[in-house]
Amino acid sequence: MINVIGLGYIGLPTALMFASHGVEVVGTDYNKELVDTLNHGHTTFEEDGLDELFAEAVKCGIKFSAEYAKTDMYIVAVATPYDKKSKKIDAGYVVAAVKNVMEVCPKGATVVIESTVSPGTIDRFVRPVIEEKGFVIGEDINIVHAPERIIPGNMVYELRHNSRTIGADDPEIGEKVKNCYASFCQGEIVVTDIRTAEMTKVVENTFRDINIAFANELLKICRSDNMDVYEIIRIANKHPRVNILSPGPGVGGHCISVDPWFLVGDYPSLANLIKQARTINDSMPEFVLNRIHEIMKEKGIKDVKKVGLYGLTYKENVDDTRESPTLQMLECMERHLAFGVRVYDPYVKKDITENQYHDFDEFLNDVDMVVILVGHDEIRNNMDKLKGKIVLDTRNICNPDGVYRL
Ligand code: SAJ
After folding, report:
1. Is the Cβ atom of 218 under 6 angstroms away from ligand 1?
2. What residue ranges of the chain are covered by domains with CATH 3.40.50.720?
3. Which pTM was predicted?
4. Is 182 exposed, middle or buried (0-12, 13-18, 19+ CB in 10 A)?
């Protein structure tokens, strides 16, 4: 039996995947409301294929509880935020989960940490919790790090098909855990040590952050001298060894915009390029704001209430708003005391900001200018509705004629 701790964006699909492949699973979360929702037969976020996977897992007998189970394998998939000031990881949730596991687990149990952690976190924070309890690591308790790689929007497919990394002190334990994951994962599963697995995960997201920052810096250079960055990237990418990513309004989500800070926090004098990339990507929401002001001036729009922001999530076709560029922009606007902008996102049903609309047509009726911040399918399939509006397209999804771009 596996006890999956933390039923969020990673823990829930992982628990469902194990369960629907014949493994006995108890999913645990301290949030009782979330556990109740799952026990009443509802998933807690939108994701392609998640409801089907949920139904299958329920049929196979998955259980959800606020209590930890007594079993021989735990998978910890709780959040790992970072301290905004020190840029260091806040391992509090991981530590609390492992402490709770230590209260119930029998000797011989394996504790797998799936949460993304900065290199060295398991040595610094997790091992002491186990040792404090009087357990000898490697004899009484085994510890493994198995970071995930799935991308919101394509999680279910990627859980099955991505390659994975398993970091373990003891290669034999690594192989054992690898075999568990192989119950559903068809990708290659590489076994290595814990420190390497920790670092690899953070490096992957940092690689992407740096490459997005390069695209964003190019955009700024091109904007300053009236060159078409999208055309330049399109042509450059025809080179067999060039693959420039897409510039945009910034980097959101709980991974790429967070993990590089772990390296900056731990190696402040060495992580220079990484820090610069983070700074560039974090500057993009303000860059969009300046662009909005330029266009408002050019078009004679005086009232910010006539401006509508399309999209609140951090990327297209997901309902996740964590660290989203739009929210970063709204914060920035508040600092500039520019209140009143209208906002709409088809995926965000709850009111999370002021002047938020829940109907696309109503939103369009009330604004003269639409700033496309997220390229949801809804807007891609309804471009004709933007006729007559002033459009700033930050995602390069519109036909460029007659629209403004970043
Ligand atoms: N973005 C751009 N330009 C691009 C690509 C992305 O501006 O060319 C922006 C997106 O709009 C979004 C942000 O970057 O705001 C991140 O989106 P994403 O789709 O690139 O990645 P995430 O955060 O959804 O998922 C990432 C993935 N990591 C990598 O691609 C290296 C995923 O595989 C990881 O599992 C996930 O982080 C994680 O949990 O760490």
Report:
1. no
2. 2-192, 204-405
3. 0.94
4. middle
CB of 196 closer than 6 angstroms to any ligand 1 atom: no
Report the phi/psi class of residue 134: left, alpha or beta, with left for phi > 0 and alpha for psi in -120 to 50: left
pLDDT tens profile 57-105 = 999 999 999 999 999 999 999 999 888 888 888 999 999 999 999 999 9
Q: What is the pLDDT of residue 141?
A: 98
CATH of domain 2-192: 3.40.50.720
Query: Which of 255, 275, 315, 398 is an active site residue?
Result: 255
Q: What would the pLDDT profile of 344-379 be if each residue is shown by its tens digit? A: 999 999 999 999 999 999 999 999 999 999 999 999
Distance 212 CA to ligand 1 centre (A): 9
Sequential DSSP letters for 118-140:
-TTHIIIIIHHHHHHTTPPBTTT
- CATH code of 204-405, in short, is 3.40.50.720
Task: Compute the distance from residue 256 Cα to the ligand 1 centre, in Å.
Answer: 6
Catalytic site includes residue 255: yes
